[in-house]
Amino acid sequence: MSPNAPDFSSVPQPMVGSLIVIMVGLPARGKTYVAQQIRRYFQWNGLTCNIFSHQVYRKRVEKELLREGGSGAPVPSTADIEARVSAIIAKEMTRFIVQTGGVAILDGTQSTTARRSALLRALKSTHHIQPNRVIFVEVVNNDKSVIHNNILRARDLFANAPENFVQQYYSVLEQHEAVYKTLNPLSDSDLSYIRIEDNKNYSLNMISGWMPSRLAYMLHNLSHTPANLYLSRPGEYVDMLCGRIGGNSRLTERGKAYSAALFEYFKAEMPPHASLNVMTSCAKRATQTIHYFAEESSKLYGQPAVDHANSDTDLNCHVSYFPTLDDINHGDCEGMLLSDVRKTMPNTLHSMCADPYYTAWPNGECIHQVFNARLEPHIHDIQASSAPVLVVSHLHLLQGLLSFFITDEDKVVAPQNAYQIDVPFESVIKIGLVGMKRTAEIIDLSKHVNQVLERTNRDVTPSAKEQDLDYNAFRRYDKKPDA
């Protein structure tokens, strides 16, 4: 390889090349949420991303003009202000993509043709990005209830929001509506854009290339009113008690009790007649864990023309089985004792400790392969769902989902570090949207499992959390092989 050749080794997925995304739309349409999801998608695919705010730059320019002009200076026109704001935004966004090779996202209304044209001219004048790598994303929503809920969510973001916050917001909204010009294929035929109307109708113009196409695909599978996501590992199983890696053993009696406890939790958690999508691994321990969900699903979907609202079911759910949610392929180590692997394969484990993400099990998979080839399609399915989703899968896959869906502003867990996330045993992780952020709540069902065992006159065995902690330490590569 030439010494001058670019080094793409740090990019885990084939996401290469800069991109600028410019949000368009009226306030309270969910643009900021969509912008954050765009950022997370490309971040998870290994690119550096940043969200820029048009409002922040507008305020900065207005302050600068006040300082420069003084009391007797003429008031600059709106066009002059827009040109100056656009020039600064273009300079800083292109500087960012030149330095990082990543994705820059501009949040704001960009509600007029003049503002969009000024931005595009300023970006072109930098000569740092091709026009087809500047994508406008318009979010249109005509549902008044959704708009009102978005305004209430915006109010919750302010600690000391005034009592008339909602009224003030509607007043500002009317001002924007008076000048708003939507994107259309006649007047904006020279722009690359993706227009989303009511989260149902999608219009694409001049979208080509790998990253713009992936952006369009991601947006097409993004619900703007996300429901809760629930994650759970299977219940206690035989190979786990034996200290074996992987395998396809059945649940223990305690594992079966967890299956019942999990179902009872969701019967209480879900509102009447609400639908739940259950996605599960095909491993025996996983299918047995969702046994009661499968029974309810068969009542609803096992026969034609069922009235879901009046059907004799305890829970309205639909179960889907995915081999792609199966555990990582441990290759030659599948079914081996943890202790034997530590003793007989020290060199392999040393390599995995040095590079857990890219080092595969002998004749098996690595975490990178699992995330890239198997997990991303399920991320799109989850994001597209307007109903709550329960995923019953295995440690590494749930770690990957957590690393994608749980973020705190720019503080994200890179896929390469997801193996360090703790996914507790006999627990449900509930992920919900609070304001603009997804937050996780852990519901420990261990005591409920004990109650199920007592109620069914079975021995209350201790939870296998100690064995699980040892297994997790092994899977996190915390424990080095025996010397």
UniProtKB/TrEMBL annotation:
GO molecular function, one term: 6-phosphofructo-2-kinase activity
Pfam families assigned: 6PF2K, His_Phos_1
Domain 6-phosphofructo-2-kinase: 10-226
GO terms, biological process: fructose 2,6-bisphosphate metabolic process; fructose metabolic process
Record keywords, A-Z: ATP-binding, Kinase, Nucleotide-binding, Transferase
GO CC, alphabetical: cytosol
Protein name (Swiss-Prot/TrEMBL): 6-phosphofructo-2-kinase
